[in-house]
Amino acid sequence: MQRLQIVKGFLILTMLTMNISAFSQNPKRTETVELNGLQTYFEVYGNGTKPLFLLHGFTQSSKSWIPFIPGYSKEFEIYLVDLMGHGKSSPFTGTVSIKSAAQNLKHLIEYLELDNIQAIGHSYGGEVLFQLALINPEMIESMVINGSCGSWNAQDFPEFVKYLSYSNIENLTWMHEQQVNEERIRNILDQVPNYSVEVNEAELKSIKTRTLIVVGDNDDATPLECVVKAKLNMPNAFLWIVPNTGHRSHQDKNKDLFIKLSTDFLTRNDW
Fold first, then answer.
1. Which residues, if any, are the signal sequence (predicted)?
2. I need a labelling partner for 235 at 20 to 30 A (CA). Which of 4, 7, 26, 217 fits?
3. What is the chain's mean pLDDT, rounded?
4. Residue 249, SS3?
5. Rounded to 5 degrees, what are φ and ψ at 152?
6. What distance in Å separates the CA atoms of residue 102 and residue 128, rounded to the nearest whole number?
7. d(CA 64, CA 269)
């Protein structure tokens, strides 16, 4: 009898813990706002006061950052944004433009009446942050760039263009989980061959934002020489090369360490 009560007590405690955890994952705000004729969807989480924007990669959506919310929620107020063309935001209507995506993010930050933000961007999200730092240097207090060096041209990576095509959709399983419908998936993949962005040396030197650049040592989508170029030219940049990992160096086995080091970087100025 006593053993049965202990088991019941354990089950109740487990269920309560699961409910608390699930509740903590619920956004405290969700909104789709129209900015310059484009709809932008975002969610807000966290118990902290410092605004932290988490920006996803191309073909992903804000859902890709949901597993990271518990790790950042104590220190930050977390903003998950569906970047231009993705998730519940407006689809691409012309050729993909990273600068336009950055302009749209700027309008969102202004709509939210935030003086400045801290941000983490993966791949496409990182390139958007590079552009935002050029458009409005005062808007980003500090940023973590993962799997990006600011410049990328799809025509230099034909194997990625082939991989990220609708003919290969059966291997792009995450897209059905993160995009709203099949039409949106096609819309995104149609833009892959057009993806091009460049930040030259003079522009890199003008970015004064405290920046931690993170790259996997086996990242075949982000050339190390491009990463080093960014690190050497940006006056307030730091570099973390993650061993034995590829393009998504913030995920899976590296997730906890990534959260710890990125939080440390964003909350301290003595690096």
1. 1-24
2. 217
3. 91
4. coil
5. -165, 130
6. 5
7. 28
State how far the Cα of 42 lies from the Cα of 150, in Å rounded to an integer: 24
Handedness of CA 187, 156, 144, 175 (dihedral sign): positive
CA 51 to each of CA 7, 106, 173: distance values in angstroms, whole numbers, following the listed order: 42, 14, 31
3-state secondary structure of 26: coil
Distance between CA atoms of 73 and 87, rounded to whole angstroms? 22
CB 225 within 8 A of CB 123: no
Query: For residues 221 and 157, is the Cβ–Cβ distance under 8 A?
Result: yes
Domain ranges across the chain: 29-267
Report pLDDT for 270.
80
Kindly give the pairing relationship between strand 76-81 and strand 38-45.
antiparallel
Residue-wise pLDDT for 244-262, tens only, equals 999 999 999 999 999 999 9
Q: Residue 21 pLDDT > 60, yes or no?
A: no
Q: Supply the DSSP symbol for 73.
A: T
- DSSP for 80-115, written as a single string: EE--TTSTTSPPP-SS--HHHHHHHHHHHHHHTT-S
Q: Which CATH architecture has domain 29-267?
A: 3-Layer(aba) Sandwich (3.40)
